[in-house]
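Continuing the batch. This is chain 6 of the set; chains 1 through 5 are on the previous pages. Same settings as before, nothing changed between runs. Recording input and output for traceability.
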Amino acid sequence: MGGLLLTVLMVLAEQWIAAVALALFSVFMAYWTSPLRAGEHTPLATARAGRSPGTAIVLWAPGDPLSSRLQVAFRNPREDVVWVNVHRDPHAQELLAAHGGAEVLPLAMVGETALPRASAGELMELQEAERRGERPAG
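Output for chain 6:
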C-alpha cells in the first residue's frame, strides 16, 4: 500500500518514469509476499520418501518474509533442497505446529535435526554436517 501511495505522489508531481517503476515494483512485491503465491511445493510424504543424506526439507509459507528470503538465496533449483508449502499440505501443517507454529518459518529439516527460522548459511552448514556424519551442535 505504501508503494502505491508513493506512486500517486509521483504522478501528482508529474514524475512519470519514477511512478511507473514504483508501481511495477509495488505490484511485484505484493505478489511475492502474498499468501496466494503458489511457489515450489513437494508433498511432505514425497519429500521424506526421497530424502538422502544432506537433503534439506524446508517448510515454508507464501507471505512469510523469512521464507521469501531463503527462497531468494536458493533461487536456482537444487536437488538437495526440497520445498514444502505448509498452506498446501495438512501433514506439513501438523509438523509445523509441533515445532512451534508459523513463528518458526522457514523450518528446515536435515536428517533428524529441525532448524527453525533457517537462514541460507545455517542451512548449508547443517547439510554439510549431515553429509560428514556429524551431529549438529545444540
